[in-house]
Amino acid sequence: xxxxxxxxxxxxxxxxxxxxxxxxxxxxxxxxxxxxxxxxxxxxxxxxxxxxxxxxxxxxxxxxxxxxxxxxxxxxxxxxxxxxxxxxxxxxxxxxxxxxxxxxxxxxxxxxxxxxxxxxxxxxxxxxxxxxxxxxxxxxxxxxxxxxxxxxxxxxxxxxxxxxxxxxxxxxxxxxxxxxxxxxxxxxxxxxxxxxxxxxxxxxxxxxxxxxxxxxxxxxxxxxxxxxxxxxxxxxxxxxxxxxxxxxxxxxxxxxxx
Length: 258
Fold this sequence. Notes:
Layout: H1 3-6, E1 13-17, H2 24-33, E2 37-42, H3 45-57, E3 61-66, H4 72-86, E4 91-94, H5 108-136, E5 139-144, H6 167-187, E6 192-199, H7 211-216, H8 231-238, E7 249-252
Parallel strand pairs: 1-2, 1-4, 2-3, 4-5, 5-6, 6-7
C-alpha cells in the first residue's frame, strides 16, 4: 500500500480528550488534517465546540463535546453518546490531565484529586472505549504521557526560578506507560493497538530565563518542542502506518532522554 494511504485517516472517527490544551490543539488539528473526523472533548464543552468550529472553518471535520474525567458516569455517557452518533470510534487519544498539585508539600487532598482524574479517570475512559473497540475487532489508543513518564525530574532545570515539578505528575505519567503496556497486551488479540507518546516541554512563547536556556541545554536539538512537532507521531500511531506497533512509548523530546 502506498505510504500516503497508510497515513490517511479519511473516514475515521478520532476522539481527543483535552483537545483544546497545549498539546490537544495540535493533536486534534493533525488528525483532522490527516482526514479524520475529530471529536474534541474536555470539561469545557463550549471551548471544544469553538475549536471544532475553527477547524471546520478551515475545511476540516470536527465536533465538540464535554465530559468529566473524574466522574465515571460522565465518561460512560460520553462514550455512549459518541458511539451512538458515529457508529464506531477508530482512535482514542488520552490527553486530558488535571493539575491540582503544584508542589511536593501540597496537601494530600491535592494528590487524591489528581489521581481521580489522571489515574482512575484515564483507566475508566480507556476501558470504556477499548471494550467497544475489542467488540468491533479494531481500534487504536494513543496515550499522551511526558518525558516525566520515563525519567526522574531534573531539578537543575528550575534553578534560579520559582518553578518546580510536582510528584503526582511523575507518578501518574509513569503509570500511563505501564497501563499502555497492560492494555496493549489485553486488547491486542482482539485487534486493538495501544501506544503512548512521551513529549518534552512545549514552547508556548514567553518562557522565562534561566529555565529556557537550562532546559534547552539538556536537549540534543537545543530547543523545546514546537506546535507541529507532535502531529506526525500521533497520526503515525493512529493510522495503518503503525499497524505492527503496540505497547510502545515514542520519546518526542529532542534527545532529552537519550
